[in-house]
From TrEMBL, chain A:
GO terms for biological process: malate metabolic process. It catalyses: (R)-malate + A = oxaloacetate + AH2. This is D-2-hydroxyglutarate dehydrogenase, mitochondrial. The gene is d2hgdh. Its cofactor is FAD. GO terms for cellular component: mitochondrion. Gene3D superfamilies: 3.30.465.10, 3.30.70.2190, 3.30.70.2740, Uridine Diphospho-n-acetylenolpyruvylglucosamine Reductase, domain 2 (3.30.43.10), Vanillyl-alcohol Oxidase, Chain A, domain 4 (1.10.45.10). It is found in: Mitochondrion. The lineage of its organism: Eukaryota, Metazoa, Chordata, Craniata, Vertebrata. Its main location: mitochondrion. InterPro entries: FAD-bd_oxidored_4_C (IPR004113), FAD-bd_PCMH (IPR016166), FAD-bd_PCMH-like_sf (IPR036318), FAD-bd_PCMH_sub1 (IPR016167), FAD-bd_PCMH_sub2 (IPR016169), FAD-linked_Oxase-like_C (IPR016164), FAD-oxidored/transferase_4 (IPR051264), Oxid_FAD_bind_N (IPR006094). Catalyzes the oxidation of D-2-hydroxyglutarate (D-2-HG) to alpha-ketoglutarate. Also catalyzes the oxidation of other D-2-hydroxyacids, such as D-malate (D-MAL) and D-lactate (D-LAC). Exhibits high activities towards D-2-HG and D-MAL but a very weak activity towards D-LAC. PROSITE patterns: FAD_PCMH. It comes from Carassius auratus (Goldfish).
From TrEMBL, chain B:
This is Electron transfer flavoprotein subunit beta. It comes from Carassius auratus (Goldfish). The gene is LOC113059368. One of its GO terms (cellular component) is electron transfer flavoprotein complex. Keywords: Electron transport, Mitochondrion, Transport. It is found in: Mitochondrion matrix. One of its GO terms (biological process) is fatty acid beta-oxidation using acyl-CoA dehydrogenase. Gene3D superfamilies: HUPs. SMART domains: ETF (SM00893).
């Protein structure tokens, strides 16, 4: 059985890639070469709208073949060991956890993990790697959900875990300046003592680094109230691919002097530069926080509750999240959490944060009375004490964790017009039928952001093929975003065209080429494969 | 048998809050700090409400001693299912020095006034950890006591109480009226649901002064000072086993 017969069974685009691998080029017959030309013509013709090369239509999230970066040599290790004594990790056991993502769905083969402590060290590392053409994968808390935080092949892992110092905090302006490796929860605890809070909050707070949050433009549970990082980050210190240090660490609310470069790096997922320090505007800690957990019998009523909430609680509303009945049963089954109210098809978590407990409670109780008497809400409970608030929040924050116990999770983080959010979940259920074990929906309904999750006992390519590109086409039809806050990383890079026009993506490619001509920063991520 | 249960609920600093000692070391900072119902008192309320749902008792009365703010705590008990509340007004200096002896005198007086058959209290409060009020109340009333209860049931006209003790579990049968103090595993307190929270607003809370009950709240104890526990010293990391042995020898431990 020659190469050709096996070859013939591969989908058209993969055959092109198969040929790129030099080992097989000598085995090609004339027929094969004709096939290659034909398929490359096809691909070039469809380039702009294709789902990218390197990945087969059945698995567009898979990695492309390794680009021709250098491999790490003993001389390289000697350099790193001199620069970072005791902080150059090559032990495979220690490397294991940094090579695998949090969802345990992507694994790389890096052999070197570097832990710099200062911006200067990061600069020297990148200058060296750029000269040597060594690929680098910047890594914070490794809590990303799109495979963007772990190496694909043998990229050197550049970890910010030792860059965890707070630089300054001004308690009049509320501006915090800190290194990129500070864990979000630690920053929250630090600020709490000073009567401030971080402007963002997410389930991964115990592990994620602020640098990682900024490079993915993380949204989280408080976006509704405090806005996105694009507004709250005032300045960044970034090390560029060639080692140049770009110090835009301003601590000013207003500064209109030239192009706002930091916006390029926010959300760039480590592909344009390595963020080493952040200055961020922090809000005052609210004196009174209340959480209400409500049950609704239909999504329409949930939306009307949201309207009512906006009207009656407006200025004190700090979060409006939802989860469906399937999520609740998973929480009960795997994490043994109890449902505080009667079973309902939908659950809402509402958080208010204000400066006066008595006023807020009055507003909240009026709102609750209104939604109860008008039957928009069928049941609910309220909490003002810290422990109860934590318990209610965990019902929303731990859904991701509960899902990991169900086998393999297919995660979709979609932005849609608010009315359409649950339609996607119901459509998917109908479309997938028995093929999927669970189809659940939850998320930041207040921001129009759905987390659609589908599970199967183990990775199932047939199920994946049924889900994708159906889910992306559905999203594209309603002009939504195929990645609201998780970013593109490795898994979704080739889907960018569902939410961005080709001219925009082409410009992104030009910017990438300008800032990182050798492409050493987090290769294979964020931008689609056909950009090269 | 009136079928009435008195449940004591204490307003304490929420257990998730970080406690700070006042600069003058006379106590801890309570101003602007989040307060909530003592967790063991929640368990006590839950047990009382459960007994009412099983129709073993007729009325649950929630009682709290303190300033205006304790009404919040009583409302929470009402939202969990208590029928009415009694707020024993104690404020200012008296409240600062209020301790188990005075509270147990108040409860004893109330029990007689309300003709209660059963008093359920939390085993201890998380602020003073005294674990005395239940026992003192029983002594003042000369009633039997079932403390550290992890299970309570009625058997004919007596109360069967399973107690958590150091050696394991002890089951006792006591006559009514009695005092029971709730331990952690007695039950899991319910969340107060909205319909009940709304109903609770209409339930009555009566105001009473200690003097009306003939109780003198003067304290015979004086707090001399309050300090933080000693700071935990950082550990020392060593590179090799020899280093470890050397350090242990230095410290005179080996």
């Amino acid at each position: 059985m020659g190469i050709f017969q096996r070859f013939a069974r591969l989908p058209l685009k993969s055959r092109y890639i198969w040929c790129l691998s030099s080992q097989y080029s000598t085995d090609l017959t004339a027929v094969d070469r004709a096939l290659i030309v034909r398929s490359s013509q096809l691909i070039q013709h469809r380039c702009v709208h294709s789902r990218g090369l390197g990945a087969s239509p059945g698995n567009p999230g898979a990695a492309p073949p390794r680009l021709p970066f250098s491999r790490v040599t003993h001389e390289d290790l000697a350099f790193f060991r001199t620069l970072l004594p005791g902080r150059t990790i090559t032990d495979p056991d220690l490397l294991k956890s940094s090579n695998v993502d949090w969802l345990k769905t992507v694994e790389g083969n890096s052999e070197v993990l570097l832990r710099p402590k200062t911006t200067e060290e990061v600069s020297q590392i990148l200058r060296y790697c750029n000269e040597r053409n060594l690929a680098v994968c910047p890594q914070g808390g490794n809590t990303g959900l799109v495979g963007g935080s772990v190496p694909v092949f043998d990229e050197i892992i550049l970890s910010t875990s030792l860059m965890n110092q707070v630089i300054t905090f001004d308690n009049i302006s509320g501006i915090l300046t800190c290194q990129a490796g500070c864990v979000l929860e630690n920053l929250s605890n630090y600020l709490e003592e000073k009567d401030f809070i971080m402007p963002l909050d997410l389930g991964a707070k115990g592990s994620c680094h602020i640098g990682g949050n900024v490079s993915t433009n993380a949204g989280g549970l408080r976006l509704l109230r405090y806005g996105s990082l694009r507004g709250t980050v005032l300045g960044l210190e970034v090390v560029l691919a060639d080692g140049r240090i770009l110090n835009c660490l301003a601590t000013l609310r207003k500064d209109n002097t030239g192009y706002d470069l930091k916006q390029l790096f926010i959300g760039s997922e480590g592909t344009l530069g390595v963020i080493t320090a952040v200055s961020i505007l922090c809000p005052r800690k609210p004196k009174a926080v209340n959480v209400a957990f409500l049950g609704c019998s239909s999504f329409q009523q949930l939306l009307e509750t949201f309207q009512c909430c906006r009207g009656m609680l407006g200025e004190i509303l700090s979060a409006f999240e939802f989860l469906d009945a399937s999520c609740m049963s998973l929480l009960e089954k795997h994490l043994k959490l109890t449902n505080p109210i009667t079973e309902s098809p939908f659950y809402i978590v509402i958080e208010t944060a204000g400066s006066n407990a008595a006023h807020d409670e009055e507003k909240l109780h009026k709102f609750l009375e209104e939604v109860m008497t008008s039957s928009l809400v069928t049941d609910g409970t309220v909490a003002t004490e810290a422990t109860k608030i934590k318990a209610l929040w965990s019902l929303r924050e731990r859904v991701t964790e509960a899902l990991t116990h169900e086998g393999y999770t297919y995660k979709y983080d979609i932005s849609l017009p608010v009315e359409k959010i649950y339609d996607l979940v119901q459509d998917m259920r109908g479309h997938l039928g028995d093929r999927a074990k669970n189809v659940v929906g939850y998320g930041h309904v207040g921001d129009g952001n759905l987390h659609l999750n589908i599970t199967s006992p183990s990775k199932d390519p047939a199920l994946l093929a049924a889900i994708e590109p159906y889910v992306y086409e559905w999203t594209s039809k309603w002009k939504g975003s195929i990645s609201a806050e998780h970013g593109l990383g490795l898994k979704k890079r080739n889907y960018i065209y569902y939410s961005k026009p080709s001219e925009a993506v082409a410009l992104m490619g030009s910017i990438k080429a300008m800032l990182d001509p050798k492409g050493i920063l987090n290769p294979y991520k964020t931008l689609p494969d056909n950009i090269h | 048998m009136s079928g009435r249960v008195l449940v004591g609920v204490k307003r304490v600093i929420d257990y998730a809050v970080k406690i700070r000692v006042k600069p003058d070391r006379t106590g801890v900072v309570t101003d602007g700090v989040k307060h909530s119902m003592n967790p063991f008192c929640e368990i006590a309320v839950e047990e009382a409400v459960k007994l009412k749902e099983k129709k073993l008792v007729k009325e649950v009365v929630a009682v709290s001693c303190g300033p205006q703010q304790v009404q919040e705590t009583i409302r929470t008990a009402l939202a969990m299912g208590a029928d009415r509340g009694i707020h024993v007004e104690v404020s200012g200096k008296d409240y600062e020095t209020l301790g188990p002896l005075q509270v147990s005198k108040i409860f004893a007086a109330l029990a007689k006034k309300e003709q209660a058959d059963l008093i359920i209290l939390g085993k201890q409060a998380i602020d003073d950890d005294c674990n005395q009020t239940g026992q003192m109340t029983a002594a003042l009333l000369d009633w039997p006591q079932g403390t550290f209860a992890s299970e309570v049931s009625f058997e004919a006209d007596k109360l069967k109480v399973v107690r958590e003790i150091d050696g394991g579990l002890e089951t006792i049968k006591i006559n009514l009226p009695a005092v029971v103090t709730a331990d952690l595993r007695l039950n899991t307190p319910r969340y107060a649901t909205l319909p009940n929270i709304m109903k609770a607003k209409k339930k009555k809370i009566a105001n009473v002064k200690p003097a009306d009950l003939g109780v003198d709240v003067c304290s015979r104890l004086e707090v001399l000072k309050v300090d933080e526990p000693p700071q935990r010293q950082a550990g020392v990391k060593v590179e090799t086993v020899e280093d470890l042995v050397g350090k242990l020898k230095e410290a005179g431990r080996v």
